[in-house]
Amino acid sequence: MQPKISLFFKSSTSTSETPDPPRPSTNLFADENAKESEILITYKRKSRTPDRVSEKIDSSRVMGKSGKVLNKKRNYAQFHLELGQSDFLLHTCTTCGFKYAAGEEKDEKVHKGFHKTHTHGIQFKGWKNERVIDLPALEGGRIILVLDVDPPAQAKKVQEVVKVMEMELGDGWIFKKQCKVYLYISSQRVSGCLVAEPIDKGYRILSSSADGRNDDISTKKARLIATTLQFGGMSFQREITKRTRSEKHIEVPNGAILCEKEAVPALCGIRAIWVSPSSRRKHIATHLLDAARKSLCTDTIIERSHLAFSQPTSAGKALASSYVGTKSFLVYTTTDYDQ
């Protein structure tokens, strides 16, 4: 017969009561020589700045699929491939003045297009309605007159040509709305341009400034001090050469143009004239001047002596004196007509 289950939960009489834990001694110096339990505390020295940077760099790197270490942080350092280049500076074209990175495919392509535009002229496919100036002596090209009332496409082409002109002649003064623009077209390119306007007066320049002579000095020999030196049977006489300025010429500062104070009648003002470098020495500028004289005034052909030029360069002076037939041609200021 199995015992009752309550018998398993009865406390054992044979077990003695648990003794009380020992009380701590009140004597402060008791067991002074006894061995106490030791607590070990360790300190880790902080790493220096370079090590901390390297730790950050190492922690920011992860392993790629190919096993290479990849850097998750952005690196803005610029690197170059050493392929035998002389330097990494921009190259400036001596012909067109364009700056580009040599060896860069995009820069090379942009420079090639700009260089061709500068040397051969602006590309021009033609318009449906063109105002062509008929010149018997003109061969191999045509001259188109553009007015401010023409369609926007023609005005846009004029602005494109003016930008090329401003690179050589300066910007901000070449073109205004009331001007008449003459374009010389050859081989589907604008290789020449003339900007003209009607005027009523000009000033004749002095021939000395047209020659480009800064100072004309004539040499006169004057025997100021005459001394005789005797060497045996030979005698030597010393002379001094004095340089004096001639009163027939006027000293002109470099680059300046001297003109008379009194104005003279003029009808056509040439604000600017430009020919592409590859088309120069082909009488294109002469054809443009002929077209301006013929069509600026509707009822008459302007005489060459009634042309006035604005801010002529050294090449412009040579062109003006050759075309007009005198070194004392007329000039005018564009500010008098900029309204």
From TrEMBL:
It holds the Pfam family zf-C2H2_3. It comes from the Eukaryota. Residues 264-332 form the N-acetyltransferase ESCO acetyl-transferase domain. Residues 78-116 form the N-acetyltransferase ESCO zinc-finger domain. GO terms for molecular function: protein-lysine-acetyltransferase activity; zinc ion binding. Residues 1-33 are annotated as: Disordered. GO terms for cellular component: chromatin; nucleus. GO terms for biological process: mitotic sister chromatid cohesion. InterPro entries: AcTrfase_ESCO_Znf_dom, ESCO_Acetyltransf_dom. It is found in: Nucleus. Transmembrane segments: none annotated. Keywords: Acyltransferase, Cell cycle, Metal-binding, Nucleus, Transferase, Zinc, Zinc-finger. Belongs to the acetyltransferase family. ECO subfamily. This is N-acetyltransferase ESCO2. It comes from Escallonia herrerae.
